[in-house]
Every structure is written in C-alpha cells, then in structure tokens.
Amino acid sequence: MQDTDELYREYSTQVYKFVFSFCHNHLLAEEITQETFYRAIKSIHRYDGTCKVYVWLCQIAKHVWYQELDKQNKRKADPLEDSSLSESSHSTESQFILAQEKMDLFKQLHLLDPHTKEVMYLRMTGEFSFREIGEILGRDETWARVTFYRGKQKLMKGRMS
C-alpha cells in the first residue's frame, strides 16, 4: 500500500469528481473528499486488496455522502440554498425555463433503475469516462456504455411522450 501523501495525490481528484457527481456542490464535494481520505487513512489496515484502491475510496466516499444526506434530512435544509441560477446572465424567464427543464430531466432520471441512474449521474454530472464508470461500479467499460445508451434512449422516449 502507498503512503498517505501519495495516496491522496494519486486519487483525490478522481474521488472529488465522483463525490461531485452526487452532491453537485463544490464546497461539499471538497469536504466529503477530505473526510473520505481521513477515514481511509484511519482504516487503512482494513483494506484487503480485493478491489482497486480507487474503488475502495469511492465506497468510503459514497458512505460519507449518505451520512451527509441523513444529516441534511434531519436539519430540513432550506431548499432555496441552491445558488446555481444566481449568477446567470439570462433573463428571469429563461432561468425559470432552464430550471424547469433541469428539474424534469432529474425527475425522469429518478425513475430509471438504480444501475442506469447511477451511470447516468456519473457520466452527466461527474463527467467520468465510461472506463472510470465501469471501474467505480465494478463492471467493464462496455457495460457502462451500453447502460448509458439505454438510459439515454429511455429518457428520449419519455420526453417525446
């Protein structure tokens, strides 16, 4: 196993991208990434080598993310905290239309089966390659490509209906 500095240098960017694909918030993604490496270093003795280090780190990151979601649900976070539209040069009307389209897309994504949904999120928001997605999910690149394509087809079919 690598030393902790080397581990962080090699995987921090990838883990950050993975986390960002779920939370869509740069500061929160940085925080969760830091917590992931903190926990990984604390439990490095439990890493048994049955999966790649990157996959192990993503498993930890996903667990930290789920804990963060639980905390947010308990706090009943303010839904107006999303500032993704605040610094746009578009008119109020076009901002509203874009927000509605984005909301519709995510509603449709939510209806997909869990594997397809995860592939779609990783590809669209985390900007992971199909190879990386396959690696994260313990599958191969072809499976990730086919799953993404089928998910995209389902979304397109749903929009035309």
Descriptive overview:
- InterPro entries: RNA_pol_sigma-70-like (IPR039425), RNA_pol_sigma-70_dom (IPR014284), RNA_pol_sigma70_r2 (IPR007627), RNA_pol_sigma_r2 (IPR013325), RNA_pol_sigma_r3/r4-like (IPR013324), WH-like_DNA-bd_sf (IPR036388).
- By secondary structure, the chain is mostly helical.
- It has 2 domains: about 80 residues, RNA polymerase sigma factor, region 2, helix turn helix motif (Rna Polymerase Sigma Factor, Chain: A, Orthogonal Bundle), CATH 1.10.1740; about 70 residues, Arc Repressor Mutant, subunit A (Orthogonal Bundle).
- Helix content is about 75%, strand content about 0%.
- About 10% of the residues have low confidence.
Topology diagram in text:
Layout: H1 4-23, H2 26-42, H3 53-75, H4 92-111, H5 114-124, H6 130-136, H7 141-160
Keywords: DNA-binding, Sigma factor, Transcription, Transcription regulation
Family: Belongs to the sigma-70 factor family. ECF subfamily.
GO molecular function: DNA binding; sigma factor activity
